[in-house]
Amino acid sequence: MRKITLLKQAGERFFQAGIEDAASEARLLLCWASNCTRIELMQRDDIPDDVVEKFQQAIQRRSAREPVAFITGEKGFWTLDLHVSPETLIPRGDSETLLEALLHHRPDRQKVQSILDLGTGTGCLLLAALKEYPQAWGLGVDVAPGAAALARRNARRNGLSERAAFIAGDWAAAIRGRFDVVLSNPPYIEHAEMVRLMPDVAEYEPHRALDGGNDGLTAYRILCRSLPHLLSEQGCAVLELGIGQAQAVTALAESAGLKVLECRKDLGGVERALVLAFS
């Protein structure tokens, strides 16, 4: 079948389904179905029948608003290639702001020895940090055993399994010890706002990783109470924030005896990464 015909049909279906960047997503999925790069796809005119069938199945799934990452089973983040599944949130570019903030406040790549990631999901934050700090080992914790298992797969995929461990647990309840760095992207969407999420998120990504309680701050209360017992003397924590949450989370942190080193904005101008340390 002709490539141009396939892409046109897919783009039209995606547009009708309310998907932004319909043409771009059609090309991305055809590359995935063809197991080729965009440049290689540009050089092709006809698409084999087996690839057409795989592509049409992907079109059907995406038209139902299933995220592209769940269709392909993977997602890029920072310098990593990660497996993804409905057990976890799909890693997002906004979360890379936490790594930018961490590298700014801990620029010596040899001094960080231990990293804790609470609510690890795919393991994206912990594994990306371990890539940057070659002397460090890390522990990722997630309430879902399936998420912890997926994070272990990602550690193996990125050559970090000897320096990363993942366990299922309730935040820091089972953790004893102190860490040079604590990272977390907790659930922070207000419960009443969950019904307003895009169907790509609301119908496919795990609500436990999104729903932050009535005011969106439930997880931050737990984290801020825990951080003084988790951070080493010169340690720092970097927490991801939802839109408009910087002031409220700052107040929670300061009431727990922590000080704010920075609140870093993401590329969209949202205050996204709160950096904390001992007062």
Automatic annotation (TrEMBL):
Alphabetized UniProt keyword annotations = Methyltransferase, S-adenosyl-L-methionine, Transferase
Q: Name one GO molecular function term.
A: peptide chain release factor N(5)-glutamine methyltransferase activity
Which InterPro entries is this protein grouped with? DNA_methylase_N6_adenine_CS (IPR002052), HemK-like (IPR004556), N5-glutamine_MTase (IPR050320), PrmC_N (IPR040758), RF_methyltr_PrmC (IPR019874), SAM-dependent_MTases_sf (IPR029063), Small_mtfrase_dom (IPR007848)
Q: What is its EC number?
A: 2.1.1.297
Q: Which residues bind substrate?
A: 185-188
- The answer, when asked if Transferase is one of the entry's keywords, is yes
Q: Gene3D superfamilies, per this entry?
A: DNA helicase RuvA subunit, C-terminal domain, Vaccinia Virus protein VP39
Biological role stated in the UniProt entry: Methylates the class 1 translation termination release factors RF1/PrfA and RF2/PrfB on the glutamine residue of the universally conserved GGQ motif.
Sequence similarity? Belongs to the protein N5-glutamine methyltransferase family. PrmC subfamily.
This chain belongs to the protein called Release factor glutamine methyltransferase
